Amino acid sequence: MSGNTFGKIFKITSFGESHGAGLGVVIDGCPSNIRLNLEQIQQELNRRRPGQSDLSSPRKEMDELQVISGLFEGRTTGAPLCFFIENKDAKSEDYKEWDQIYRPSHADYTYLQKYGLRDHRGSGRASARETINRVIGGAVAKQLLAEKGIQIFSYTEQIGHIKMQGSYVDYNWPLAFSNELNCPDSDSLQQMLQLIEKVKREGDSVGGTIKCVIQGCPAGLGEPVFEKMQALLGSAILSINACKGIDFGAGFDSLHMTGSSHNDLFNHSDEGIKTKTNHSGGIQGGISNGMDIVFRALFKPVATIAKAQNTIDQTGREVSFAGTGRHDPCVVPRAMVIVEAMAALVILDLYMENQAKKW
Amino acid sequence: MSGNTFGKIFKITSFGESHGAGLGVVIDGCPSNIRLNLEQIQQELNRRRPGQSDLSSPRKEMDELQVISGLFEGRTTGAPLCFFIENKDAKSEDYKEWDQIYRPSHADYTYLQKYGLRDHRGSGRASARETINRVIGGAVAKQLLAEKGIQIFSYTEQIGHIKMQGSYVDYNWPLAFSNELNCPDSDSLQQMLQLIEKVKREGDSVGGTIKCVIQGCPAGLGEPVFEKMQALLGSAILSINACKGIDFGAGFDSLHMTGSSHNDLFNHSDEGIKTKTNHSGGIQGGISNGMDIVFRALFKPVATIAKAQNTIDQTGREVSFAGTGRHDPCVVPRAMVIVEAMAALVILDLYMENQAKKW
Amino acid sequence: MSGNTFGKIFKITSFGESHGAGLGVVIDGCPSNIRLNLEQIQQELNRRRPGQSDLSSPRKEMDELQVISGLFEGRTTGAPLCFFIENKDAKSEDYKEWDQIYRPSHADYTYLQKYGLRDHRGSGRASARETINRVIGGAVAKQLLAEKGIQIFSYTEQIGHIKMQGSYVDYNWPLAFSNELNCPDSDSLQQMLQLIEKVKREGDSVGGTIKCVIQGCPAGLGEPVFEKMQALLGSAILSINACKGIDFGAGFDSLHMTGSSHNDLFNHSDEGIKTKTNHSGGIQGGISNGMDIVFRALFKPVATIAKAQNTIDQTGREVSFAGTGRHDPCVVPRAMVIVEAMAALVILDLYMENQAKKW
Amino acid sequence: MSGNTFGKIFKITSFGESHGAGLGVVIDGCPSNIRLNLEQIQQELNRRRPGQSDLSSPRKEMDELQVISGLFEGRTTGAPLCFFIENKDAKSEDYKEWDQIYRPSHADYTYLQKYGLRDHRGSGRASARETINRVIGGAVAKQLLAEKGIQIFSYTEQIGHIKMQGSYVDYNWPLAFSNELNCPDSDSLQQMLQLIEKVKREGDSVGGTIKCVIQGCPAGLGEPVFEKMQALLGSAILSINACKGIDFGAGFDSLHMTGSSHNDLFNHSDEGIKTKTNHSGGIQGGISNGMDIVFRALFKPVATIAKAQNTIDQTGREVSFAGTGRHDPCVVPRAMVIVEAMAALVILDLYMENQAKKW
Predict the structure, then answer these.
(1) Facing residues of C268 across strands?
(2) How many separate domains does chain C show?
(3) N or C: more exposed end of chain C, with fewer CB within 10 A?
(4) ipTM metric
């Protein structure tokens, strides 16, 4: 398995499995002499942690951040940072009975085809527990970006068919950050929560979308051609477990527009050059234009459900399978911090690349 | 500008501008001793070429393939392949009057912010003429994949609000490949063509979606974590000019499903292990599962339109701008071969990476 | 600090400091379903370990290998392997008094200039203790190469001015592998050991050269132009602490030859095509030719010595400095396994790259 | 063949063969809005050009620089630069009779083993004519470095057994830059020239060493661990055709020193912190220390000689071979500009990487 390193200048390398010793991340390329706020990293981890509420898996993990390397008296030394999170509540026996089964829409079959063996315990490396490493890397990236005035946040735009109406700019943000969906519209919020509860009761699951907003990003980030900002964000976000789609700005709604209504007209305001609308999602020609960068990530319904379904095992025999492990009825609440983390890694890397070429 | 190289083992490096000497691509990592079919590459270029029909820009370019290096007596030598296409019908004067204007939703403003100067002629490097290089690289990749039984094709699924109904598996494919939208449904086809004609008459433009299907891909391609197959395809497709979204399999439609209806159940057929449905789009855990790989690419309405719109120039003065160069009312017809090319590059690279690790 | 990842397909990422929690390495891209011999890895670590004899630093570390991830029931799963070695005998107080001093020919000054701060404890990341990670990565690589019939070994060719005469092919190898210099010539061995003892008594240090031989490497490995085999080996070997030079085959001795005496003439023997001499060191045009690959690595005298020398501290004040920590009078005995490890990583990566392109 | 791209941020991609259309280089990652001095690039190409004197191959090529992309009104646009040099005096017939022969110490055998076919014309991609691309890339890099006060030059230190005595700092530099060996010592120069003439008359060839000096490089460049400055320079220089060794600072002479004589003692001078000696060659812990960076590159005797030698052909039959093409008796005169170019690429890339991480 390759592909466990992300980034070009600020790079993270992820290791660990759901039911091994733990999860770890190496961060290479971090500027030196930066005082890291470890508590803030822990808070981001807490946003991702299971067992936080009725909406998420009951696995109990404290996910306590351990510093392995790269810090000296609280500051980055320029050496690779390594952080580690132990697995403490791994219940491998939950998975023992499935070790021969190809669970529907899981990675069991594909891993076995690819690797010739599989670590069946909690999906091994395919587990979303891997995303801990992204959250840590992203939390460090956010701290560096914040020093440059760049902020990243996200909210739940849709759960199943329940979609929040209107634009994020018109909403009540203190409300959003006090509920577990980061949803600023209290009506939509109630309906979304009810829907998640309903599918949970039915032993089923539901998908949703997350809107992510990057504010304060200067114009000029993104590399034309293959490393356009939307291409790198796309790669970053689509690498998150259960993510099956992404669009930018007006996105798929632009199918109902023409060029004349979709084009963002430039004007000169007191704050400098802006566009009147932001259908481009802050990116033009693959490069940030100084407006908010806005994209939407789609998460499919979770594959593991309590309802029994037919599938086959490794011998080809048909079997019935019902999930009994600890799983979420909807990944959206816990996925927001992961989406933000991946976005932070992309923006930081592009920022550093841009800085490299100032002459 | 970085980001002009794509791929890890089979790599293409793109150079050239819309109104310079021409466009060129260097392909590094191609297996040696392969007889390349140059005519087939030219045919792919012809699919992308402007001036082919009423639907596309009237710029007249033959886009004739020149071999610069890497072939000896018709076979790849293992040395880097270089192909070049001269610019012959570049009319830079068309653009002269705009050289100070920030065209709406174009890269003029962002390039100037990033680079401190800009080559205004035909958008310079930001021009979609750059995609010639991708088509050449993709055409070589397709030939290599075909030897392994892997085929890639695409069709127009939607133009503006006109959407083809049903699944691609039920359609009349000979029809599809004889029309310029590769649309297999003659009713939808007529409506789509009419819509494109209508927006063109109105001096406007329209967007659409392309569905791309990869057949014959073995199970096991894709690298978990950051280089999941959907992440790499996402990066590849979102790097195409005017592409603003992508989804895989059931994609955004999965918002109307639950886990129990979305899960693809495995069964054992005469052709081996298959899934009954393909909502996953052939990818599970980031790895191909042997089913068709299916994704949808969104293209926004073209930014350049004949209708006048207000914008500003580099001095901040408000000006009216109407496109007078040669542009398409809809990029979808010419974008299909580009989408296929980028998909081919991704699949080939993953194939080679997998092969590297067989022990 | 970047540059903590080595390799393209088989990649190692190194983390940890001399006086932090420990040293760790993540190996990404390892073929799956391979049974690793952990004892063999430990034996390689033991070859590098300090405190083994009078010739090396008295720091007492067991350097016991811990498996963190990537193994399931003894086999590689395809997930990233992570191994960790705790620091147990770190005596940071040894270094406390030096924390403001620029030790001569050490990295104190350059680290401070680069990073704006430095972890003075045992040189932090600049410590040769980092090479533990290379030895682990190389030990895994050696196991994979051995399955393909490729063997790597090394011996001490020179300590100070004492140089072993003749060619390695004529020597008594069982003798070599039973002494700590891997020196097959007992006369030279005695003189070398005496020289090391002498400089140690004098509170001084001495350099030397290591000859490394790669046997069984098939013809055809190495990528022309920038990734010639000698270029990649050069980069790998010169990245080892205290290494200041490398040459291949006849190397600097070729200054005393002409083309007619240096050229290796091909002939056809019972074992296939061979060259009569091997002045090329097994590499022609950057590609292995099937002969033994032979290179020589130069290690300078260790910078830390017990003899006092004048230098300055961070305030610019002149001070006298004498090393009191635990250091080797000569790095050669412990560096051999590191040289082999780095060579193994290069050869394995080239092997995998070659395999990727078979069509 | 991979490995045709060099660099991480400032990257060059090389293409073309000795006897194809020509040689070309794509430069990606160059800062924008830089006015390039094309004449200076041409002058560097002239230093490498054959047919300049009796010491070099009589192939007559003007090697005239063509700009293909990336410049607008004399300035870099941020788009990839592409430069091209046509092959005009390619005499493929010179090589026709050898197309089945494995020339001694050439890449004929290794290429055939690796690729399954070979372009025998002028060694195809294995020809040193490829180094044109490096010279162009390096010439651009030198211009960027010069703006930061960094200068790179080189001179011939040794031809065969004739070695220039003393240190470069004591020499007459105007003399050096007016002779084709850049040798500042007129006695050594005469002996070296006589030796080259002698081996040429005898139909033979001779090797030599080039000393390269980088002045004005700030302290702090180089990335610890795998991308130490000497590792990257090593990789760059050893990738040049016929280069078989490299050492830094005192290099192999340090075998005759101990730690106490080799250590460079820091002192505080009017010009800031310096070392009294420079046995480290300006690099400590893999990072530049602000002193001159000094290394020596070894070039073996040219393999193609007029003297007949025995070898075999592809059928295994023994044959006699004598070079009749156009070849140099010694590569050193033409290799200096290539060594400088590769060094410039490394230093520039490290400079940009460092700049990326300033926070």
Answers:
(1) C273
(2) 1
(3) C
(4) 0.96
